[in-house]
C-alpha cells in the first residue's frame, strides 16, 4: 500500500473523481493527432458526448469519422461544447484559439494537455471561463492503448483559472474519463508542468536519450565494430533496461544486470554525464525558464521551420536508422504482419510527422 501522505504534491485516483462533472457535458476535442485521438476515443468510450474539431481539409477527418466520432470544424465543435480541449499542435493553438474564442461562453472550460501557450502568454483566455490542464505523462498512442487495456496513464492536473468554482472537479472528472485517475493524477501548476515537460523532453527523454544512443553507436562503429552489434548494444537493449527501471526503479535495473555491468556502470556513468553535462542541463533549464526556448520555437515556426526541417532530415538519414530498419524486419516479434491496430497507429504517427 502506497503512503500518499509522504508525497510533495497531491495525487488523485479514481475515487477522488466525480464523473457527474463531465458526464452530461459535451467536449470538443480540437485535433485528432497523438493526444486528440486518444482523448476523444477514451472520453467517448467512457460515455461522454464528444465532437472532434478539425479544419475542413484535415487529413484526420476521415480517421475520426471511421472511429465513430462526430466531426465538425473547430468553430462548430466549440459552439456546441461546454469543454473545449485544445489538442492541436502547440504552435497552431494561438490561431485556433482566436477562431473559437467567440464560442467560449461564460462557465465553459478551455482545457489543455500542455501549458506552453498559457505560460508563455500566447493565449489569453476570457476571464469568465475555466482554464484547466490534464496532461497525460505519455505519448497519446499509449494513452489510448492503456485505456483499452484497463491500465490507465499517469497525468498532471492544473487549474489556471477557476471562474465557476468547479474547475478542479471537472478536470478530475475529465482525467477519470480518459483513464488518468486509474494510474494517478498529480496536481501541479501550468508553470511547473510547462517547464519540467520542456526540460525533460529536451535534456532527457527525447533529446538526451537519442543523442546518447547515437553517440554510443558512433563510438562503436568508428572503432571498427559492426553496425549491427552497435545497434543492438546501444538502441535495442535500451528498451529492456528502461523497462526494468520503469517497473522497479533504477535499483531493479542494477539488480537484474550482472555485477560486472553494475560495477562498470556505477564507476563510468558519471564520466559520461559529468559536471560539464550537468552545467549544460542547467543552461537548458534556464532557457526554458526565461522564455528563450519559447521565443526561438515561435520564431522558427513564423519563419516556416527552416532549421527544424533540416534537423529532421539529418536525423532520419542517420546510419542507425537504416541498420535498425533492416534489423527490426528480422526480429521474431516483427514478422511483417502488423495487426490492423498497429498499422493504424503507425500510419497516424507517420501522418503526424509529415
Ligand atoms: N504528443 C503527445 O503525446 C503529447 C502531447 N501533449 C500536448 O498535447 C497537445 C497536442 O499535441 P499532439 O497530440 O502532439 O498534436 P498533433 O501534432 O498530433 O496534432 C495533430 C492534429 O492537429 C490537427 N491540426 C494541425 N493543425 C491544425 C490547425 N491549424 N487547425 C486545426 N487542426 C489542426 C491535425 O489535423 P490536420 O489533418 O488538419 O493537420 C491533427 O488532427 C499539445 O499541447 C502537446 O504539447 C502533451 C503530452 C504528450
Ligand atoms: C516526452 C515528449 C512529450 O512531452 C510527451 C509525450 O510527454 C511531448 O511533448 O510529446
Ligand atoms: Mg511530456
Ligand atoms: Mg511535451
UniProtKB/TrEMBL annotation:
Region Disordered, annotated ranges: 333-354
Keyword line: Amino-acid biosynthesis, Branched-chain amino acid biosynthesis, Isomerase, Magnesium, Metal-binding, NADP, Oxidoreductase
Composition bias type Acidic residues, residue spans: 335-345
Biological processes, Gene Ontology terms: isoleucine biosynthetic process; L-valine biosynthetic process
Domain of life according to the entry: Archaea
Calcium is among the record's keywords: no
Catalysis: reaction(s): (2R)-2,3-dihydroxy-3-methylbutanoate + NADP(+) = (2S)-2-acetolactate + NADPH + H(+); (2R,3R)-2,3-dihydroxy-3-methylpentanoate + NADP(+) = (S)-2-ethyl-2-hydroxy-3-oxobutanoate + NADPH + H(+); (2R)-2,3-dihydroxy-3-methylbutanoate + NAD(+) = (2S)-2-acetolactate + NADH + H(+)
Positions that bind substrate: 258
Keyword Amino-acid biosynthesis: yes
Binding site for NADP(+): 32-35, 55, 58, 60, 140
Cofactor(s) recorded in Swiss-Prot or TrEMBL: Mg(2+)
KARI N-terminal Rossmann domain sequence ranges: 9-188
Cofactor note: Binds 2 magnesium ions per subunit.
Domain KARI C-terminal knotted, residue spans: 189-334
E.C. no: 1.1.1.86
Annotated metabolic or biological route of this protein: Amino-acid biosynthesis; L-isoleucine biosynthesis; L-isoleucine from 2-oxobutanoate: step 2/4; Amino-acid biosynthesis; L-valine biosynthesis; L-valine from pyruvate: step 2/4
Binding, Mg(2+) 1: 197, 201
Any GO molecular function: magnesium ion binding
Binding site for Mg(2+) 2: 197, 233, 237
InterPro entries, per database record: 6-PGluconate_DH-like_C_sf, KARI, KARI_C, KARI_N, KARI_prok, NAD(P)-bd_dom_sf
Active-site residues annotated for this sequence: 114
Physiological role: Involved in the biosynthesis of branched-chain amino acids (BCAA). Catalyzes an alkyl-migration followed by a ketol-acid reduction of (S)-2-acetolactate (S2AL) to yield (R)-2,3-dihydroxy-isovalerate. In the isomerase reaction, S2AL is rearranged via a Mg-dependent methyl migration to produce 3-hydroxy-3-methyl-2-ketobutyrate (HMKB). In the reductase reaction, this 2-ketoacid undergoes a metal-dependent reduction by NADPH to yield (R)-2,3-dihydroxy-isovalerate.
Similarity-based family: Belongs to the ketol-acid reductoisomerase family.
Name the record gives this protein: Ketol-acid reductoisomerase (NADP(+))
Protein species of origin: Halorarum salinum
Lineage summary: Archaea, Methanobacteriati, Methanobacteriota, Stenosarchaea group, Halobacteria
Gene: ilvC
Amino acid at each position: 500500500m502506497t503512503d500518499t501522505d509522504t508525497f510533495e504534491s497531491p495525487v488523485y485516483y479514481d475515487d477522488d473523481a466525480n464523473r457527474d462533472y463531465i458526464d452530461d457535458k459535451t467536449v470538443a476535442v480540437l485535433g485528432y493527432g497523438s493526444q486528440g485521438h486518444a482523448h476523444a476515443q477514451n472520453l467517448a468510450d467512457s460515455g461522454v458526448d464528444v465532437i472532434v474539431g478539425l479544419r475542413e481539409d484535415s487529413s484526420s477527418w476521415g480517421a475520426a469519422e471511421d472511429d465513430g466520432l462526430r466531426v465538425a470544424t473547430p468553430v462548430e465543435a466549440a459552439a456546441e461544447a461546454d469543454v473545449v480541449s485544445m489538442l492541436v499542435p502547440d504552435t497552431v493553438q494561438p490561431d485556433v484559439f482566436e477562431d473559437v474564442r467567440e464560442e467560449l461562453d461564460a462557465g465553459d472550460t478551455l482545457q489543455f494537455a500542455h501549458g506552453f501557450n498559457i505560460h508563455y502568454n500566447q493565449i489569453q483566455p476570457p476571464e469568465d471561463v475555466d482554464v484547466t490542464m490534464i496532461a497525460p505523462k505519455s505519448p497519446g498512442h499509449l494513452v489510448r492503448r492503456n485505456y483499452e487495456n484497463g491500465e490507465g496513464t499517469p497525468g498532471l492536473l492544473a487549474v489556471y483559472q477557476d471562474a465557476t468554482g468547479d474547475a478542479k472537479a471537472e478536470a478530475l472528472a475529465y482525467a477519470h474519463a480518459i483513464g488518468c485517475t486509474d494510474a494517478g493524477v498529480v496536481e501541479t501548476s501550468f508553470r511547473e508542468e510547462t517547464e519540467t515537460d520542456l526540460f525533460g523532453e529536451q535534456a532527457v527523454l527525447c533529446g538526451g536519450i537519442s543523442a546518447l544512443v547515437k553517440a554510443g553507436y558512433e563510438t562503436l562503429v568508428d572503432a571498427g565494430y559492426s553496425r549491427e552489434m552497435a545497434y543492438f548494444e546501444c538502441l535495442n537493449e535500451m528498451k529492456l533496461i528502461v523497462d526494468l527501471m520503469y517497473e522497479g526503479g533504477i535499483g531493479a535495473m542494477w539488480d537484474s544486470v550482472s555485477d560486472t555491468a553494475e560495477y562498470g556502470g556505477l564507476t563510468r556513468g558519471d564520466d559520461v554525464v559529468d559536471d560539464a553535462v550537468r552545467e549544460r542541463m542547467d543552461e537548458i533549464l534556464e532557457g526554458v525558464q526565461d522564455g528563450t526556448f519559447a521565443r526561438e520555437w515561435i520564431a522558427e515556426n513564423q519563419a516556416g521551420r527552416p532549421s527544424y526541417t533540416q534537423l529532421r532530415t539529418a536525423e532520419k538519414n542517420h546510419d542507425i536508422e537504416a541498420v535498425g530498419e533492416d534489423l527490426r524486419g528480422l526480429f521474431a516479434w516483427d514478422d511483417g504482419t502488423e495487426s490492423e491496430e498497429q498499422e493504424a497507429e503507425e500510419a497516424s504517427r507517420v501522418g503526424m510527422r509529415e
